């Protein structure tokens, strides 16, 4: 399928031709150092051109042959917002694999597909947002509190796990040659950033020196010092009263001096605006002062438009033009290293064909990641499900048939993803499988209108609606027809079907709709509107031939004929004809539509109970949605606020459904799809099994089905602690690490960090240390034997924990600290000898002044498949002790 339609070419600036006076210029000489070339190039620009080049959307400079470039591209778990790409599990699900080599491979796939898209875009003279080579990933903030809505984008709560996975992802993105990266990685958000989302533009954090260097910075150090990431993104929040994007501590002292970073810093979008906004940090009086401050403190790229004020700032003496030159040279060094100023024939990555996008090997890795991310939290023996034992299976729950619950946020666009309910039907073909939505995510919250409401025509027993796809937005030239089970589609820069162009098309759905009871029902049409991309979205709904709703946008702004939320009245529960038309027109972006409804309280639960009563087994697919937890969202439902959560319990509507279904006495398997920890206390006590699936990617449905059937032996481990209640936690706004995460939590968790079950059993034995008396500053080696003594092949995640002296370091040390891990595949009966080399940094501690050192004392060391002392651990850990003599300071 083509990435772009030919009609798009004229809408974007053609690459500028090099003028005669620049022929032979230094910046065009591939044989010179990038720094020399960048210096020469910047010296040829006017002040106004320099300011424009410092913003994320950098325009072309025709006289210098500089094409337009946009630094903003997303690749959190697949190349996002730029047409179909390979979609991996959400980052928190990738973290649950505890598989560092896998993360390296995923990074390679993301960067290869980004290059493939960039190369294709360049061939069409498109230089747009989301099609660049500067990837704003990974998010390596510490998921310190489960209430944070963006925690799903991270690798969890532990600095070493986060740092190791982030390091491998960065290396996979950038490739093996530091002077010629495949793409440039941008770890984010630097630093001490994890909510609340509603206050992020004005929120200030005053971390203790210990917490800063013990928890909030180690993973960034690994990405920059060890991973050599060429870029980094500064955060919205302030630290010690100074916005992160103007922090001399972070951007100058730590980044440039301590870590020797020589790449470029980009702001989070609008973060520099926050310097002068009245309702934000307001540390600068106006745009000129804000822009000057950001440049002087080291923020090189402004995602936003504040840097338009830089010429005025220079002219008023707030900064020198040479200060701006330093910023620009860093940016152009990056673009030169990427090969953007060299002939494509001389740049190996420029030869990556578009056929690499969603290649079979990439899709296979996505499936592997989804399988490895599955975490089995409880199993009374019901799993794996015995073939043929259950003749009637009821699949219930809002996440059994939700595209958003597969995708997560900042997601790639999957092509023809299969919903979990459909894959379960294919997997358990011997059973009669029925489906009901079961419950809304929370009472009053809209969710996808389920397939069970629709039929393609009167008397047709199939679920869903007849869909006709048209080549243009005029409903005149159908190119395809099919049955769509529900209206729930993400077509961001992607054509829905072959024969359509992604920039202009239309779809008509027809059939019947029958409601579960008479009355007024509230609906909503969620459009994938892309502001300020200039897209035009229209839809209309006809019920029994009468218009029930219509809506349109114009010039990229909403022009409302009626609100996207509308009400339809049903006098009875009989089938009624329905017609829905959707038209999309945009230069490049947008595209997508989901028909949602707000069911009356209790209606879905009653359907679920009725279905369970006629079944032998219930698979309940519950949890959260990226439409409820995420980045700065307008959500005010009970338990949610602004993208964050105010409570961590499974919402009441879903808990009530589980309890009512359980009252039927039918066995129940609970499958969780979510981006953050849930207090599923009732399910732990009453369900037969609980499988944590996260937002599992385009092959998530297959991974879930295979795990329930036993074809995939689950080996994922929790990258976060599952708490029993928010009452066990400090205030969300409290950034102190006391009583947070497994390292400092003093209570009893619902499920501990590192926890996960298997269909087989592993045994650890013969733990041996290289020494029991270690001189500070030296390495120590731990070796152990691991055996799969069960009857199934499977993976184990061997975890190494350090237990520091409780009385040392003024009581600041964590109770326990992950210092090593390895995911190992073993056949039934197979043994493996494992070896872990622990460096001084891994066994070091941070004191109250923020200084890191190896400290004297008696230490414990544990190796096992879970936290040491976890009463629910499936296998006992091997424990030993050693003593450190002396002390050894370590560099920051």
List the helices and strands and how they pair.
Elements: H1 34-43, H2 47-53, E1 57-58, E2 69-70, H3 91-96, H4 100-123, E3 134-135, H5 159-174, E4 184-185, E5 204-205, H6 209-216, H7 218-226, E6 231-234, E7 238-239, E8 242-243, H8 248-258, E9 264-267, H9 287-297, H10 310-315, H11 321-337, H12 360-373, E10 375-379, E11 392-396, H13 403-407, H14 420-427, E12 432-436, E13 447-448, E14 454-455, E15 465-470, E16 478-484, E17 488-490, E18 504-513, E19 519-527, E20 536-543, E21 546-554, E22 557-559, E23 565-570, E24 576-585, E25 592-598, H15 603-613, E26 617-623, E27 640-641, E28 644-645, H16 652-662, E29 668-673, H17 681-686, E30 689-692, H18 700-709, H19 741-744, E31 762-769, E32 773-775, E33 780-788, E34 794-803, E35 817-826, E36 831-838, E37 845-846, E38 852-854, E39 857-864, E40 878-885, E41 888-889
Parallel strand pairs: 3-4, 5-7, 6-9, 11-12, 11-26, 26-29, 29-30, 32-40
Antiparallel strand pairs: 1-2, 7-8, 10-30, 13-25, 14-18, 15-16, 15-18, 17-25, 18-24, 19-23, 19-25, 20-21, 20-24, 21-22, 27-28, 31-33, 33-36, 34-35, 34-39, 37-38, 38-41, 39-40
GO molecular function, one term: xylan 1,4-beta-xylosidase activity
Family: Belongs to the glycosyl hydrolase 3 family.
Organism: Bryocella elongata
